[in-house]
Structure formats: structure tokens, C-alpha cells
Write a structure and sequence with these properties.
4-stranded mixed β-sheet, 5-stranded mixed β-barrel, globular, 19 strands, 3 domains, fumarase, alpha/beta, 15 helices
Length: 507
């Protein structure tokens, strides 16, 4: 009889989470490299190059691919003939493995889980609890899938109950453009069809855990409705021209996964969950012989590519930049930022706006006039690092605070990822401000431009505290200029037309 010892299980969960924090799976690297080779959009190609270079750096340095190290999701297939050598539940053991992994001093991972979600939203401090799905199956083995899903892509999950006669393809093609770029394409779309509402969502999530194999499927041909849907959606979603980081281009998805289940005759539940460029999951099994053995991939799996040159990039001194200078910047232009930069995410923005609404002064050191704020919650630094991986978070979450900060503080610019909403864009144009983007999924690469970091306000917020960074040649792209023109509207529209065969002027 197979006996699964507590320490073997806990150690395996810890090891798996550390492993996926810094290793992309080879199938993803190969698929992204192929997309990079074929990409014709310079902006999208450079974004993919940054993701690939970042991935190799993380594999070499054993540091997180993305600063959002995710909420942990574990799927267990428990053989009914095995026995546990423990007095703790699988949930408790998994949470202990998560706790150890996220507090590991050699590679601490960012704690992003909050309890009391509709109230105080207190950070649990160790990223527990995990979300655990358990299935009992015949046999005496324990099969485990460990995933860590970032909030940017999880927030773009969508669900609908269609009429049985409705088209799943039409619904997906209508839904994907509404997701924006906050899920950090290029990635993978998971589609769950059938069952009941909660089953469809679970199918969509499970579908994302399979290897990328769309090209192999295309070569052998589809053998089921689900496989035919995969091929059709892969082609049609990419024809939307959304492209890497929403900048416009040929590749928006590297693969589309579809799982289905029998459903009620009157229903057609459909779920869509995207997986971002920081796709993180690993499959292994335990047979009672010890912890899982997770062989490191070979560095040869990563392509040796160079980032685009910066000869034509505009260099910006953040300590002296003026509104007049900002007015010359145009969407799609590359900037290299140097100087002092403040950070702030949702919780910090709320605190700042609450102070403003009450007529109270902002914290000492938080003078936003003529300054730029970076939407980031960095990973804790280790060894000789100034700061850990520090990639951008989705900017649309800050939209409701934007007008107040621009009007009341004199804030000049913002840096994040993905598009801004109509009201935020209108406010940016009205105040002559600007919105810039850094590449989502290149957090370790971005952190190398940060020369110093210190917390200046709200330390109780942990990773959401306001920091002051000093950066040198931090690469960003102008996403919304001072006139309100957005690259996330212009870029995909141009590439959608190009893919459809309508001549356009290159970006």
C-alpha cells in the first residue's frame, strides 16, 4: 500500500511553487519564440522579446517571472487505495507548503491573498489559503497539479449561459476584445463548455493546465467538436489584431484550450479564463518514495535573443520633466526614464483620495506635483538586489482615482500595464497628463533599471506601500498621450485591418 508522508507532500508543494515562480515550461518558451519570429508589429515583437529575455534571466537567477506570484490553485487526484501518514487535512498540508514557499528567504514570493474580501481585505501575509480541488480515483498514486494564477488574468474571467442555439465562437469573439490587455497577452485562452455554471468555470481553468499543442493539432487535424473549436478560435482571436500587450500584432493567443461536459438540454454554459504570459503550472505524482523530483529545464530551451535597440528612444529626466515636454510625446513612442519615481496601487490610491476628500495633507514625502507614479507592488529584495521583480499592474483598477489625483495633486504621469478606460483617458487629456506602459510579464527585467528603493508612506500596506524608486533608463511605451490618443485603440485597429488584407500605414 502506498503511504504518503506529510513532510514529503508539504516539501513537494513548496518545491513546485518555487520551481514555477522562475521556470517557464519549455512548451511556452518554444511557442512564444515562434510567435516572436513571425511577428511583424515592431512594438509587439519587442514586448515578446522582453518577456523571453526576462524568462531566461529568471531561470538563471531563480527569481520570479512576474511580481504577481499568484494565488495558488492545486488539483489533487487521490488514489483510493493510498494511505496518508499525517493527522492533518490535505488543505492544511498544502497551506503549509504554500507558507514555506512564499516565505522562502532565498526566493520570497509576493503575498497577494487577502481575507475578509468584502471588508477589511487584510493580507494573510503568506499567500494562504490555497484553492484546492480534490478528486478520488482508483489506484494508489497521488497526482498533483500546482498552479499560481496572477490577478491580472484571473480578473478577466468571464461566464455566460447561452441559448443552446447560440454560437460559442461568436460569444468568445465578442468577449475577448472587452478583456483589454490586462491579462498580458500573448497567452492562452481556456474555454469550458457545458455542465453547470460552476462546472464550466472549473473546466476552463483545468483546460489551461495542458501543454501548448495547437500546431500539432493543426497538423494531425481535429477529431472532435472541441478540437475544431480550438482551431477556429485560435485563428479568429488572432485575427482580432490585439497583439502582445494589446499593442496590435499578429499573435494574441499562443493556444486555445477547450474542455466540455454534458449539460442540461435547455442550457449552454460557457466560461472563458485567460492565462497570461507568466503561465505557471506543473504536474507531478507521489508514490510514497519521497518528495517529487522536479528536474530543472536546460537553459538551451531559451532562445538567445537581443532586445530592440534604444538608439531612437527618447531619454526622460523624471526630476525635471515638464508638461511642455510631455506634450511632444506620441502613442507608441519608446521612452527611457531616469530619476525619482513614486509607486502606488489600489490600496494606496484609496488612502490618498480619502485624505484629499477630507481636506487632510498627504503623507510626508508624497508630493505628486509634476511627478510620475508607477502602479506596482514589488517582490521583496534578496541578496544584493535593490528591489525584487517589479513589473506593472493593471492600470484600469486605478481609473476611478485618476481624475482626483490629476486635479488635486498636479500628478503629471502614470505607468502601468494595459489600457485606460474612457473617463480616465478624458481626464488625462483634460489635464495634459500622460500614461505610459511597461511590459507585463517582464518584472525581473524591469527591476534591473531600479537603482534604489525606499518606503515613504503606508508601510502597513506591505507590497502596496508607496515606495520611491530611483530608476535609470527604465524602458516604457507611451500608451495615452496628452491629447488622449491611445495606442491600445490605434494599434489593434491597424493590425486588425492589416490581417484582413486592408492596406494600412505601418506603425
Amino acid at each position: 500500500m502506498t503511504v504518503i508522508r506529510e513532510e514529503d507532500f508539504v516539501t513537494s508543494i513548496h518545491d513546485a511553487l518555487q520551481y514555477i515562480s522562475y521556470y517557464h515550461s519549455p512548451d511556452f518558451i518554444h511557442a512564444l519564440h515562434a510567435a516572436w519570429r513571425d511577428e511583424e508589429s515592431p512594438a509587439a515583437r519587442d514586448a515578446m522579446a522582453q518577456i523571453l529575455v526576462n524568462s531566461r534571466l529568471c531561470a538563471e537567477g531563480h527569481r520570479p517571472i512576474c511580481q504577481d506570484t499568484g494565488i495558488v490553485v492545486v488539483f489533487l487526484r487521490v488514489g483510493m487505495d493510498l494511505r496518508w501518514d499525517t493527522s492533518r487535512s490535505p488543505q492544511a498540508m498544502i497551506d503549509e507548503g504554500v507558507r514555506r514557499a512564499y516565505l522562502d528567504p532565498d526566493n520570497p514570493l509576493r503575498a497577494s491573498v487577502v481575507d475578509d474580501p468584502a471588508g477589511a481585505r487584510r493580507n494573510t501575509g503568506d499567500n494562504t489559503p490555497a484553492v484546492v480541488h480534490t478528486e478520488l480515483v482508483p489506484g494508489d498514486k497521488l497526482e498533483i497539479i500546482v498552479a499560481a494564477k496572477g490577478g491580472g488574468s484571473e480578473n478577466k474571467a468571464r461566464f455566460a449561459v447561452l441559448n443552446p442555439s447560440d454560437s460559442v465562437v461568436d460569444w468568445v469573439l465578442k468577449t475577448v476584445p472587452t478583456l483589454g490587455a490586462g491579462w498580458c497577452p500573448p497567452g492562452i485562452l481556456g474555454i469550458g463548455i457545458g455542465g453547470t455554471p460552476e462546472k464550466a468555470m472549473l473546466l476552463a481553468k483545468q483546460s489551461l493546465l495542458a501543454p501548448i499543442d495547437i500546431q500539432a493539432l493543426r497538423q494531425r487535424g481535429p477529431a472532435s467538436t472541441a478540437e475544431r473549436l480550438r482551431l477556429e478560435l485560435h485563428d479568429k482571436v488572432n485575427a482580432l489584431g490585439i497583439g502582445a500587450q494589446g499593442l496590435g500584432g499578429l499573435t494574441t493567443v499562443l493556444d486555445v484550450k477547450v474542455l466540455d461536459a454534458p449539460t442540461h438540454a435547455a442550457s449552454l454554459p460557457v466560461a472563458l479564463i485567460p492565462n497570461c504570459a507568466a503561465t505557471r503550472h506543473i504536474h507531478f505524482s507521489l508514490d510514497g518514495s519521497g518528495p517529487a523530483q522536479l528536474p530543472a529545464p536546460k537553459l538551451e530551451d531559451w532562445p538567445d535573443i537581443a532586445l530592440a535597440g534604444t538608439e531612437n528612444a527618447r531619454r526622460v529626466d523624471l526630476d525635471s520633466v515638464t508638461p511642455a515636454q510631455v506634450r511632444d510625446w506620441r502613442p507608441g513612442e519608446t521612452l527611457l526614464l531616469s530619476g525619482r519615481l513614486l509607486t502606488g496601487r489600489d490600496a494606496a490610491h484609496k488612502k490618498l483620495v480619502d485624505l484629499i476628500d477630507r481636506g487632510e495633507p498627504l503623507p510626508t514625502g508624497v508630493d505628486l506635483r509634476g511627478r510620475f507614479i508607477y502602479y506596482v507592488g514589488p517582490v521583496a529584495a534578496v541578496r544584493d538586489e535593490v528591489v525584487g521583480p517589479a513589473g506593472p499592474t493593471t492600470a484600469t483598477r486605478m481609473d476611478k482615482f485618476t481624475d482626483t489625483l490629476l486635479e488635486k495633486t498636479g500628478l503629471l504621469g502614470m505607468i502601468g500595464k494595459a489600457e485606460r478606460g474612457p473617463e480616465a483617458i478624458e481626464s488625462i487629456a483634460r489635464h495634459g497628463a500622460v500614461y505610459l506602459i511597461a511590459t507585463g510579464g517582464a518584472a525581473y527585467l524591469v527591476s534591473r533599471a531600479i537603482r534604489s528603493s525606499r518606503v515613504i508612506a503606508f508601510p502597513e500596506l506591505g507590497m502596496e506601500a508607496i515606495h520611491e524608486f530611483v530608476v535609470e533608463d527604465m524602458p516604457v511605451t507611451v500608451a495615452v498621450d496628452s491629447r488622449g490618443e491611445s495606442v491600445h485603440e490605434k494599434g489593434p485597429a491597424q493590425w486588425r485591418a492589416r490581417i484582413a488584407g486592408i492596406p494600412i500605414t505601418p506603425q
